[in-house]
Design brief:
The complex is a heterodimer of chains A (about 80) and B (about 400). Chain A has helices at about 5-15, 40-55, 60, 70-80. With about 80 residues, chain A is mainly alpha-helical. In chain A, helix 1 packs antiparallel against helix 2 and helix 1 crosses helix 4 (about 70-80). Chain A starts with a helix and ends with a helix. In chain B, about 40% of the residues lie in helices and about 20% in strands. The chains are: A mainly alpha (about 80), B alpha/beta (about 400). Chains A and B meet through helix 2 of A and strand 6 and helix 6 of B.
Amino acid sequence: MTDRDETARKIIALIEPYNKKGIAVTESTRFAQDLEWDSLTVLDFVAGIEDEFDILITMNQQAEIETVGQLIDAVGELKG
Amino acid sequence: MTDLLSKFDPLIAQREGLLATGLTDPFNLVMERVKSPTVAICNGKRTILLGTYNYMGMTFDPEVIAAGKQALEDYGSGTTGSRVLNGTYQGHRECEDALRDFYAMDHAMVFSTGYQANLGIISTIAGKEDYIVLDVDSHASIYDGCALGNAQIVPFRHNDIEALEKRLKRLPPEAGKLVILEGVYSMLGDVAPLDKMVPLAKAHGAMVLVDEAHSMGFIGEHGRGVAEAQGVLDEVDFVIGTFSKSVGTVGGFCVSNHPKFEILRLVTRPYVFTASLPPSVVATAATSIRKLMHGADKRQHLWDNSRTLHAGLKRLGFTLGTEEPQSAIIAVIMPGLEQGAAMWEALLNEGLYVNLARPPATPANMTLLRCSLCAEHSAEQVEEILGMFERAGRATGCIS
């Protein structure tokens, strides 16, 4: 398993508790439109991601991330 | 052609749906006459005001009114200019002197509104390479100040000390950092743990800005706010406030002990590129601020009112924003927007005005009836208010 695969596995696991509609999450899943997350859910989820990878994702960076795949790539970059 | 207003269609539909049920529009109330800080005539009816943030009841203070009239006579109706050009009159200086005395700080800068004070100070001191760490429930003026300045924004869960600490630890050590907190959060009327958060921010090399809009005049030994009450005011770099709450007029300000503070007058765009407050407004503000310095009796009465209303509403079965009264704001949590609007209208029919707050302005999509008490509410008025809540609550099914 590559480092990216491992990151993807962890992120998808962190999405599950907030996946209220029970949709099949893929890299093209969109947070706002497909998962229909409100701002508080986003805050909690981002905090979970930050704790898991010991990184910081600013609101400015969040604005650029629309899909699960983009988040996996962003986390990979932030981990350095 | 794309209709640029189409994006508001869902909101238009929601509003029309609500009004179609026959409810009065909660956002279209007119105060036909205002008789005192606590009573107005609305829809031809005597109405107790419980949603004005006029905490210290200064709007009809005879000395405040006299100062405003005199300034209107002496200096005219407006300055027609920016503070840095022709818009600084003697009254603006006196108002800033009053603020420096009130907070016992070296510098004070008066803005045309509280919104502009946050917009100006935040956007000017934190630029593109800097980080702003802020409570997620911060006021819109704080978020707009962040957006205007292009800083990197890091929100943390409301009043969560551990969440703040985690984010501070992860910031690049060399980066410029600003932590923004509020003394009293206006939606639920709850107080921030500034005694924990301010030292934490300083320990991580951040500057601290605290918005004390809803505590000035009321909380703290000298009415300087929650930072004073919790003993950390000396560690706060910037205090932001407003004249449209306890001071009883309009305007905003920033006070600070920072030695380079005065340069902000030349580089803060919402200060430089807007007209200054009319002379009558700064005269009323200065008089009111100086009177608030000696408002200990009023503060005591306001606390009594807050405790009585909080306990009374709780006893009636309402769900409140805080377990204990923490400020002069008491938020009554409604089951949803429709029932909240019905309750708001029932209270208005009883002769009581409160604020209806709804998503997206509220945390966790709550609908709230926000009550803000005034030092001029009598004990009898508070009892009258409780009777109105009881009748309206039963009529709308909010309490059984």
